[in-house]
Amino acid sequence: MKTRHAIKLYEDFIKSKGFSRETLRKYVGNLEIFCEYYNKIEKADDVRDIRFEDLNDFFVYLKKKKNQKGELLSSSALSGYNSVLKNFFEFLVKYEYIFNNPFNMENFAPAKKMSLRKSIDVDKVLEFLNALEDGTDIGIRNRAIFELLYGTGIRLSELINLNVTDVDFGSGKILIREGKGSKDRIVPAGDNLLRILKTYISVVRKKYLDENKVFTGALFLTVKGERLGSQSVYRILKKYFESKGIEGICTHMLRHSFATHILERGAKIMQVKEILGHSSLSTTVIYTQFSLTGLKRIMKKYHPRENEIYEEMTPEMRDEYIRILTRLDPRC
What we know:
Elements: H1 3-16, H2 21-42, H3 52-64, H4 75-94, H5 122-132, H6 137-152, H7 156-160, E1 167-168, E2 173-176, E3 185-188, H8 191-212, H9 230-243, H10 252-264, H11 269-276, H12 281-287, H13 292-300, H14 308-312, H15 315-328
Antiparallel strand pairs: 1-2, 2-3
Helix pairs in contact: 1-2, 5-6, 6-8, 6-10, 11-12, 12-15
């Protein structure tokens, strides 16, 4: 069986499992990079001929490979390749496209370090949002975009897929259609965010539609009246923070910041989990970044005389939460 045909079979399989388009793109991309390497080095193109040694050589190659910034691939990137290839060959064996798994239960990538995600300080987020409001159409649109990202914690991929009809101004809720894992969910929207969205829709979005004589349900539009893309949003954020001498900022940090900031101000962990659309508590805990003071405040809730956390968690969930936090910060 040709390697590319095997990849197509696997792609169809994971599509049926409800993976997001971004996840599909990443998984298939990793497999195609392996396929290209294998075809070039081994001068072969049959998935049944792939051996353990071929996989080992591929990971040796990856560990020397540099990304677009000229940096070696991170342990996270290597773990991604490891996971994708492992699942790929398990799929081929399970459905009898091959009979021997060349992965051989090996872990070719270094273990991913468990670490807290980065967030942006509240003051810097507010400064950024206020700087976007310059009275221009672009400024109004950009303010609405980033107020929505920070105000709800939704993913960038979810934001660019929003339609106007997904915002319910009456109830103050936003429908996220087919988020990660193809799951729909509802997120709350505050009065300030709704006010900014109303201004953008009535003033700027309407103008873009009328000037370009187009009709689309997309919430956020380019000046040409087309659905706004993720790269455009990323460039706006990056340009602003780099102008302030701050490097390494990405749109996902607004999601981390949203979760961290509302948790530090008293939101319950289970409420944050539901808003973010996480399937497990572990993901939510790792996702948020606490100062040592914040960690101590939350850990204090586990004391028998501080029973708030007992009301929202089962004993098993509390034990898991404590275990995760202790691994993240041994000082706790």
